[in-house]
Amino acid sequence: AWPLMVLIVGDIYGVEHHGANYMFYDGATKALGTIFLSEILAGSVYESHVGLSEDTIHTSSRALSKRAITCLGPECFQKTHLITAALAVTGIVASLMLCQTSKEAYGSKR
Q1: DSSP readout, 19-50?
Q2: Cα gap 110→104, rounded to integer Å
Q3: Which residues contact 77 (CB under 8 A, 6 or more apart)?
Q4: Which tens digits make up the pLDDT trace of 11-60?
Q5: Which are the contacts of 106, defined by CB distance < 8 A and separation ≥ 6?
Q6: Element at 62 (helix H, strand E)
Q7: Count of C-beta atoms within a 10 Å radius of residue 45
Q8: What are phi and psi of 17, to 5 degrees?
């Protein structure tokens, strides 16, 4: 279905600014999603469960124990998985809404 995105974007939004519209759906969403989910969300959730703060780094000895910098168990990324699942459900709902919206555009072309 993803290769059809080029045609769908052209049909729904027109071909005048087709390149910009398509890059919005293809390029920008992938880049922003990757940065948000892998760097910001997963990193912050993991670090919040590690509990390593600047005070811990300065007051502890040079060799930090593995316990202080490692998070074990499902709680390390559970919040990340739940947020990612919620975003996937949101994407499904948005796709269904787009199907409803595009019925008018494709209904007249039969």
Answers
A1: HHHHHIIIIIHHHHHHIIIIIIIHHHHHHHHH
A2: 11
A3: 42, 45, 46
A4: 778 888 888 888 887 778 788 888 888 888 888 888 887 765 444 444 44
A5: 11
A6: none
A7: 20
A8: -120, 45
